[in-house]
Amino acid sequence: MKLRRAWAITLRQLYLYRDNPTRFWQMFVWVTVDLVIWGFITKYLTTVVAPDFGVVQVFLGAAILWGFVLRTMQGVTTSFLEDVWSKNFLNLFGSPLQTSEYILGLVFASIIGGVLVLSAMLALASVAFGVAMFSLGASLIPFLLILFLFGIALGIFGLSIVLRLGPIAEWLVWPIPAVLNPFVGVFYPVSTLPEWMQFVSHMLPPSYVFEGMRSIMNGGAFSLMPLAFGGALAVLWLLLAYWFFAVTYRTVVQKGLIARFEAEGP
User: Fold this and answer.
1) Which long-range contacts (CB under 8 A, 24 or more apart) does 88-92 make?
2) Which residues does 48 contact at the CB level (< 8 Å), separation at least 6?
3) CA 191, CA 214: separation in Å to the nearest integer?
4) What pLDDT is recorded for position 264?
5) Residue 254 and residue 260: Cα distance in Å, rounded?
6) pLDDT at residue 48, rounded to an integer
7) In the chain, which stretches have pLDDT less than 50?
8) What is the rounded radius of gyration, in angstroms, for the C-alpha atoms of the chain?
């Protein structure tokens, strides 16, 4: 693996954002809308719930962290789909580029986009609603790391689906976060779920992050062991996602299905 090839994939994505500001601003639109909506909802809820419950901090904190997962996943899948839409995917693999270098390049692009969006959300939440996520202290670092690894895993899994089923399958990718949202307890404790949903929740790394966040923001103690287990799960999900991509890529090449992505002609 050569990092300069992976960085070349990242640079291509950055050039796309530079040359078309619309692509850049769309990264912030939906997460900003979600944050504003949840901000005003939580301000209203503070008037109807017990004053000692940190509604704004808990709900807006959850919205920010889940938005980070979404942006991380989309950073991988959207970058891949840019190559599909422009019929450039086969051109890339007509070069010495390796699949691991390609994935790593998408991950680098996702990191840059994720940091920008997260910074914007933190600034907006602080200025508009007085929520300081840094009140989580040092626990914020493992929280973000787990969510980042899980978001990357979802992104790789999503692009594998498109790779296997063809470009039309992109519409199967976008609902994935919405399907997982009820299971990970973004806005409510996992204990409120039915037992079968709790079982699924315990297999999803973000559930440990949101449970830990609520505990800290409501004056509880930071629990290291559940978070460490969530981190191990995130690494496992990432490894499984990359394995699934590698198997899928070999399959579509061997069966000739990759021709559906059409290399752009001269």
Assistant:
1) 88/264, 89/261, 89/263, 90/258, 90/261, 90/262, 90/263, 91/263, 91/264, 92/9
2) none
3) 13
4) 53
5) 13
6) 62
7) 265-266
8) 20
Asked if the structure places residue 122 within a domain, the reply is yes
Residue 266 lies in a domain: no
265, part of any domain? no
Contacts of 76 (CB under 8 A, 6+ apart): 106, 107, 109, 110, 151, 152, 155, 156, 158, 159
Residue numbers of the domain that contains 76: 3-259
What's this model's pTM, rounded to 2 decimal places? Answer: 0.88
* pLDDT digits 0-9 by tens, 57-93: 778 888 888 989 998 998 899 888 888 888 887 788 7
Please give, one letter per residue, the 3-state secondary structure of 193-204.
Answer: CCHHHHHHHCCC
Number of compact structural domains in the chain:
1
**Which residue's structure tokens are 């291509």?**
12
For residue 264, tell me if it sits in a domain: no
Task: Say how far apart CA 55 and CA 123 lie, in whole Å.
Answer: 19
DSSP state string for the chain: --HHHHHHHHHHHHHHHHH-HHHHHHHHHHHHHHHHHHHHHHHHHTTTS-TTS-HHHHHHHHHHHHHHHHHHHHHHHHHHHHHHHTT-HHHHTTTT--HHHHHHHHHHHHHHHHHHHHHHHHHHHHHHH---GGGGGGGHHHHHHHHHHHHHHHHHHHHHHHHHH-GGGHHHHTTHHHHHHHHHTSSS-GGGS-HHHHHHHTTSHHHHHHHHHHHHHTT-PPPHHHHHHHHHHHHHHHHHHHHHHHHHHHHHHHTTGGGGG-PPP-
